[in-house]
Amino acid sequence: MSGAFTASLRYEFRMQLAKRTVWIVPALSVLLFLLIGGSLLRDLFDPNERPPLARTAVVGLALQLQALLAIGFGCLLADRYVRDDRLRVAPILDATPSSSAARLLGKYLGAAGATATPILLVYFAFAAAYALRIGGVAAIGWALAAGAVVFVPGLLFVAAFALAVPLVMPAPLFRVLFVGYWLWGNLAGPDLMPTLAGTLVHPLGGYAMEALLGFHGIEDDQSFAGPVPGAALNFLRPDPTPATAWLSIAVLLALSAAVLAGGHALRAKRSH
């Protein structure tokens, strides 16, 4: 299994990283971020303003970039698993002695890792610039922590659905529905409509940001996790604590594994 997994991971990573769209889509998204988030960046990098704590600055950047760039991330991955069937190479791969589950896991981590590379490069470039100008070495430490508990679980969650769901619907339709889900499930306020924002199933990492990184917004006056008075789905919003933060990460990863397993089982059933 390890041989098939490693070969698949390397191949998928190199192939995905070589695609122009993997770099163009994040670049256009960053341009949009600079246009709509210019005031945030000015507040963070202007030495004449009172700078926020390094932790607040780099975690705030993680939230902003994850919210925007994950949309393109999911759309770019939407055809990776079904592409083998479309190109008629899946039967050839299935005829080899390698494990199909190992190939899927390698495809998942390789394609997701490559597609996430520009996102993480952008984030750590911003964090390094902030560290050199204002925040010091502490900013890099907080950026690494945010990468581990905010970016990684959220992007793995998105990648699992992006690979598996197009097995049951066309990839273009998935992209449309995914964008709608992302805006509804992450950016819409739970006080306005029933939404998954602020729940344990929140790929923007609200629980991790609050309970593990101590982030409550740039002005320290926002909440990203926990119950909202009068909101629906509050049973999915326990109070943010380190335990519920790790629970949220575990839930995201467990759902990712379940979706991948379901996609693998569905494809195996179709091929027999």
Write a concise keyword list for the protein shown above.
70% helix; 11 helices; 272 residues; mainly alpha
Total of helices: 11
Largest sheet: none
Task: Please give the share of residues in helix.
Answer: over 70%
- Name the poorly predicted regions: none
Number of DSSP E strands:
0
Radius of gyration: 19 Å
Count of folded domains: 1
Q: Given the helix and strand composition, which structural class is it?
A: mainly alpha
For the record, give the distance between the C-alpha atoms at the N and C termini, rounded to a whole number.
21 Å
Q: What would you call the shape?
A: globular
Mean pLDDT across every amino acid position: 86
- The H-and-E topology, N to C, reads as HHHHHHHHHHH
| Range of strand content | under 5%
Structural account:
With 272 residues, the protein is an all-alpha fold. It has one domain (2-271). Helix content is 70%, strand content 0%. The protein has 11 helices and no strands. It has helices spanning 2-17, 20-36, 38-45, 54-76, 83-86, 90-94, 100-135, 137-164, 171-187, 206-212, 242-271. Helix 1 packs across helix 7 and helix 8 (137-164) packs parallel to helix 11. It is globular, with a radius of gyration of 19 Å. The model has no long low-confidence stretch (mean pLDDT 86).
Give a brief description:
The protein is mainly α and 272 residues long. It contains 11 helices and no strands. 70% of the residues lie in helices and 0% in strands.
